[in-house]
Write a structure and sequence with these properties.
single chain; alpha+beta; outer membrane lipoprotein receptor (LolB), chain A; 15 strands; 21% helix
């Protein structure tokens, strides 16, 4: 199920995130003693934030997470109106070496992963033109799916309940700025306990989400920029194969 409110977003990550002190774009800074509970006006602005993202249509996304000895970055676009996105994933190991980049297209339930070498291998088996693997979008299986879930759930057609936000003691952290294509955008940073949100001072949109992953001890960060309608290209049905039909090849080609 796709969360439709800030509380739903937090609930979707409950098994993966734990509350910690706030941070600034990934660099931990402000101590928790500076936090204060939000005001009714701030609760109202927060209640509108996901709806404002949806009304924008889409955005460019830049997501990052560290898992074990590798760091992952996924950059691309999200179309919140039609609930579809596409990102290019790059991974870099601690020794500085990089894995082959690949694309993932996704919706709230399914991912379509471009697997290098799959098309050649399946063509040798008499099944040409297939280079994408369909998998369920399941954040419990991989940190990449955590990032995709955060991207997809950063919009809603349902306004949150400001009274519940006040009751949950969501906290204001500080005023700050984020970069949007070289332009500094003023934001207010809020901590709801499991995730932190950078909300535009002028536009009221969610410009950044940060979540702490209990299972890895790392931080997942998603930054949105260049808000506006998007048309996202997804692979054709003939190019896709369910992972269960090629599990042997998939395990071999992706190394897990």
């Amino acid at each position: 199920m796709r969360p439709s409110t800030l509380a739903g977003l937090a609930a979707a990550l409950v098994a993966l995130v734990v509350p910690v002190g706030c941070s600034d774009g990934g660099n931990r800074a402000a101590p928790t003693t500076t936090l204060r509970v939000i005001t009714p006006d701030e609760a109202s602005r927060l209640a509108d934030a996901l709806v404002k993202n949806h009304d924008a249509g889409g955005a460019r996304v830049d997501t990052r997470v560290t898992y074990g000895t590798a760091s992952f970055r996924a950059t691309g676009e999200i179309d919140w109106v039609h609930h579809v996105g596409r990102v290019t994933v790059t991974a870099r190991r601690s020794d500085g070496t990089a894995a082959t980049p690949f694309d993932i297209a996704f919706n709230p339930n399914v991912t379509f992963e471009q697997v290098p070498g799959l098309e050649v291998a399946l063509a040798a088996r008499g099944r040409p033109g297939v280079g994408w693997v369909e998998r369920p979008l399941d954040p419990s299986t991989t940190p990449i799916h955590v990032l995709l879930r955060l991207v997809e759930t950063a919009s809603s057609t349902v306004r949150d309940n400001p009274v519940l936000l006040l009751q949950n003691r969501v906290r204001h952290v500080r005023s700050d700025h984020v970069d949007d294509g070289g332009k500094r955008v003023a934001v207010e940073v809020y901590d709801e306990g499991r995730t932190r949100l950078w909300i535009g001072t002028d536009d009221g949109r969610v410009h950044r989400i940060e979540a702490d992953l209990a299972s890895t001890g790392s931080v997942a960060t998603v930054t949105f920029s260049a808000f506006g309608p998007r048309t996202v290209k997804v692979p054709a049905e003939a190019e896709i194969v369910p992972v269960g039909e090629v599990s042997d090849l998939y395990q071999k080609l992706v190394g897990r």
